[in-house]
Specification:
Strand content: under 5%
Structural class: mainly alpha
Organism: Aminithiophilus ramosus
Keywords: Membrane, Transmembrane, Transmembrane helix
Number of strands: 0
InterPro entries: EamA_dom (IPR000620), EmrE-like (IPR037185)
Pfam families: EamA
Helix content: over 70%
Order of helices and strands: HHHHHHHHHHHHH
Largest sheet: none
Protein name: DMT family transporter
Distance between the termini: 7 Å
Number of helices: 13
Length: about 300
């Protein structure tokens, strides 16, 4: 196992864990598709700076099937997956949605074995199951039943679709890194250019359908604009580049369960800095995530 791949995966999880705390203070009554559109500026801007810092000039162009796969990975991981996630929450509540969608590391493990030819050892399998179980225990309380049975079924299917979208995007990203000459920064740069028009097109469509009012974004305070774009730079630019680096150093079946521990870090940060409390069940979840990540790492 490559130690640097483990460190990069943990650093990615830290980036992803800080962002929800920024959202909590700056989202107001905005929906996530609106936040996604705003933070796209931070994503693109930070990636331009990273490419300039890399000093290798304009990244090589992606053409044909490689571009289509990058488009698919971006839409699945950062656009459709997140929209499906929010829809599943609306149907069945946060607790159930998080429980079902947190199974995406299992999807990555299976696909990594079948498509990428990665060897799934017993520690990887046991550690992945431990992380998934721990994430389920970390969710906040139990949600009451929402709506009628058909709504619950739709919510369950939406949550499964979310896990599938997230689980598909990571093996595709690793395959692109292995099959092209792109660096992790180059790949994430092209992802940002795909992400930007995609989220704004989705926002415009939702405005046309009556889900959003354009003035809501314009009315957002300047400080909140900066904070949300900072979150985009942290989660999508830095976190995405670190994830790609980790996938260059270690198998996707190892990297994913470790990066999926970001809810654990978010919980610990909320306890330390926001004064939140945790139940005994959540502390058991924390222990399972820590043990699972440790088992995978060795």
């Amino acid at each position: 196992m490559t130690p640097i791949g483990i460190v990069l995966a943990l650093t990615t999880a830290l980036c992803w864990a800080i962002v929800p705390l920024i959202y909590r203070r700056n989202m107001g009554d905005l929906s996530f598709p609106e936040v996604n559109a705003i933070r796209s500026f931070g994503f693109v801007g930070a990636m331009v700076l990273l490419v300039l810092f890399q000093g290798t000039g304009m990244p090589p162009a992606l053409r044909g099937p490689h571009f289509l796969l990058l488009l698919a990975a971006t839409l699945l991981g950062n656009v459709f997956g997140d929209v499906l996630y929010l829809s599943s929450i609306a149907k069945i509540g946060v607790g159930r949605a998080v429980a079902i969608t947190s199974t995406y590391p299992l999807v990555v493990t299976v696909l990594s074995a079948l498509w990428l030819g990665e060897r799934i050892t017993l520690p990887i399998a046991v550690g992945t199951v431990s992380v998934v179980a721990g994430l389920n225990l970390l969710r906040k309380g139990n949600d009451a039943d929402r709506g009628h049975l058909p709504e619950a079924k739709r919510g369950f299917l939406l949550a499964l679709a979310t896990a599938l979208c997230w689980g598909l995007s990571i093996p595709v990203t690793r395959w692109l890194l292995l099959e092209t000459d792109l660096s992790s920064t180059d790949l994430n740069f092209w992802r940002s250019l795909v992400f930007f028009p995609s989220v704004w097109a989705l926002w415009l469509l939702r405005c046309r359908l009556g889900y959003h009012r354009p003035e809501r974004i314009l009315a957002l305070r300047g400080r909140s604009w900066l904070a949300l774009n900072g979150a985009g730079a942290l989660a999508l630019a830095l976190g995405g580049t670190l994830l790609a680096l980790a996938l260059q150093q270690a198998p996707a079946s190892v990297v994913t369960p470790i990066t999926a521990s970001s809810p654990l870090i978010s919980t610990l940060l909320a306890i330390s800095f926001l004064g939140e409390t945790s139940t005994r069940r959540q502390w058991v979840g924390i222990a399972l995530v820590v043990v699972g990540s440790a088992v995978i790492s060795f």
